[in-house]
Fold this sequence. Notes:
The structure is a homohexamer.
Chain A: E1 30-41, H1 44-52, H2 60-72, H3 75-78, E2 87-97, E3 102-113, H4 118-136, E4 144-154, E5 161-162
Antiparallel strand pairs in A: 1-3, 1-4, 2-3, 4-5
Amino acid sequence: MVSERQHKMPAHIDSDGNARMVDISCKNATVREAVASCVVELGQEAFIALKEGNAPKGDVLATARIAGILAAKQVDRLIPLCHSLPLEFVGIDFELSEKERTVTVRARSCTSYKTGVEMEAMTGASIAALAIYDMLKGIEKGITISKLQLEFKSGGKSGTWRKNTP
Amino acid sequence: MVSERQHKMPAHIDSDGNARMVDISCKNATVREAVASCVVELGQEAFIALKEGNAPKGDVLATARIAGILAAKQVDRLIPLCHSLPLEFVGIDFELSEKERTVTVRARSCTSYKTGVEMEAMTGASIAALAIYDMLKGIEKGITISKLQLEFKSGGKSGTWRKNTP
Amino acid sequence: MVSERQHKMPAHIDSDGNARMVDISCKNATVREAVASCVVELGQEAFIALKEGNAPKGDVLATARIAGILAAKQVDRLIPLCHSLPLEFVGIDFELSEKERTVTVRARSCTSYKTGVEMEAMTGASIAALAIYDMLKGIEKGITISKLQLEFKSGGKSGTWRKNTP
Amino acid sequence: MVSERQHKMPAHIDSDGNARMVDISCKNATVREAVASCVVELGQEAFIALKEGNAPKGDVLATARIAGILAAKQVDRLIPLCHSLPLEFVGIDFELSEKERTVTVRARSCTSYKTGVEMEAMTGASIAALAIYDMLKGIEKGITISKLQLEFKSGGKSGTWRKNTP
Amino acid sequence: MVSERQHKMPAHIDSDGNARMVDISCKNATVREAVASCVVELGQEAFIALKEGNAPKGDVLATARIAGILAAKQVDRLIPLCHSLPLEFVGIDFELSEKERTVTVRARSCTSYKTGVEMEAMTGASIAALAIYDMLKGIEKGITISKLQLEFKSGGKSGTWRKNTP
Amino acid sequence: MVSERQHKMPAHIDSDGNARMVDISCKNATVREAVASCVVELGQEAFIALKEGNAPKGDVLATARIAGILAAKQVDRLIPLCHSLPLEFVGIDFELSEKERTVTVRARSCTSYKTGVEMEAMTGASIAALAIYDMLKGIEKGITISKLQLEFKSGGKSGTWRKNTP
């Protein structure tokens, strides 16, 4: 992929098993989108505090939403081999299940660029969930964050992908 | 605006009153520019120290200029719903009024992108003014920063806008 | 103040008018607090949107509060000559005046350290106000941020200081 | 807790349901430690690539370890209401299960300060797992990160806590 | 270059000797590449520890590679007048000379944008070398980093440039 | 060193050759200082531009000084295994040699903490030198940064160390 470049790296410093970014110079910019989600499993007391708006550190979901949006914009600093890219949208939403005492965090990210935005969606969902944990850990330290996964991606050479759901 | 996307967010996580970035995927990239300014109101002693170059922490305006430029490049980290964008220029300039004992800070920012650069200019001016405060607060804690406002913007769907001046 | 150090900087690189951090090695750690405020002057339409919770980008004050808190924790990156310090508290609060169509932003910061937290309060208030601007600029570009100033500080060698109020 | 302060915030800007940092000014500095973990569930192809060291972007675990360590040091930027604190140690370790085709990520963090380091361990484990995802997603997009949870904490007023294990 | 702009900055705030970013609005986006290198001069003991993989803080080159890649993506925050740009590739490689007891660090960066990536390559090489120093300074404090220089650049108006080698 | 901890890491995730931070929990806080330097080798044209203050991007040394100070405060983000620490002072100074056409950059850093500040001085000097390069590379791409090295350190268990000078 580097062969059309004017300057060849000497062979002896060729990478072999070493961490390396993908060179996207020759890729096409296309519209790309990704959706990721995870599930925050709360106990009864934490769920009620969240739902009734009296968590010890205040408004849980508004804070977590901002945390997730800001984190998605910092993916290039957090995930070593990710590219800096012009993120055109990132949104974080929450779905509460009273029966399961869970919050499902869902992040969607979009760009028109040469590489995908899966990590932006995954990281946005993850940090939003961690902010929920932070704001409720005074009530319950055993909160668990599970099933962080990609749900959907579109765009790029590999095209559309959708998580199989049972 | 999301309707042409392949993946619909489920209705129940539709945002309602929640913080959300504007989705700029469908906007056109145009040349965009913004100018913002604010006024740092110094007392007599601080103004003289600034003007004569013997402020307690050294060169006030050179430091404030760099602070403003760096801050404009970090707007996406500071202002939660702002987009990361390829800033093509940011400049910070200062105008001293001996009569008013003020420094007017003016920031100009430019891009060729899908969204405007008003926040880059506003934040650049604001942080430059705060750096002036920081370097002179040893002399006078009562320094006030006023009239932080947009003066001008151009580009994008809403076109050119200019602050009314009395 | 540097005289008790073992290693002297050669005289010819002594700073003269150049930007320099204050050396706080020999200062005492004391409890320090600061309060700063500014006023966001909205027009009628923007004020109503804020108050009624239908601003174009969603929940204005929750977003601005988080922006201010995060900015206060990043002062050492934003204001060149500020020290990195263990910030023990930062809070951002808002006061709406229907008559004036203003939001007063107030930030309070605390530490037990060798230098003051004025810049943390000033920067927290400033960035919170800029986030308000960002979320309402779709309605009204002429919003002005005024009277950014220190209200109060305590602790350290210079002790307690309070803004004169007319 | 604020009552011994010299400067009272006016009652009308008292927070009510709003996001707020905990004021730790009056807390004692004690030795604090936290351990958190999560499980990265790989498919067969991704597990083999990881184990045999031929993942598409190179050395997975060395990269993930650095990502986790760096993220733990940035928790105050990522989790809005967390304090900046002097992190004395953070370590990331990995345990591979060939049978389960999983990597268990474990993060340990330590400080001698006024507040705990649970979020540093949780965030370190989470970002290390996301870096593993990033380096293997070219092989398998369906990798899931599960069971992100606190295992242990010690220090502070609430003392030692240990996750119940079945 | 600013003359085609709609909004003129008033003459009296025209910069004169002051720091300023280059305005790249009118430049063309072209493929640009840069290679930079530096030499880390180790003593015997440090070189052996590096080569045999028993440095006090662990895997030196894997850590330095990640440090260099991450730093190259942060150049706009580190070098005040550099532009934020969409870096399409950055790679860090190392070449050990047993005879000289040196590590040559080489960084290559690429973009398709309006300005060059020399600083990304220079900064990537420099921070990778500093990370090597950090991981070996427990063995030998006198390690020196030398000959940090640009080797090659291509693209843009000034075209291809190559370091003269004796 | 970890033996007095309450929670043991399971043996099977014990690090072996992997990158690891030093655990400084049990170290003593002492006054620590470090001085580092490097030499920027300019050609004739670049040296004259620097000296006469007409470099293409403006005030070289004021900009480089701020860049170096800011970088020293960000060492924990840049050098993966460095600790976040309360830096009490960092200063950057420059010495011009007309005969050699060089700028010697010297950085000094101080803390009262459990670990040393060598990397803060080394990184501050390095980034200041890179900023000089950035501001003069329009004149001369072949500028070289050499002899980045520690000159002096004091404090901590290993005590005072001074570079041998020929």
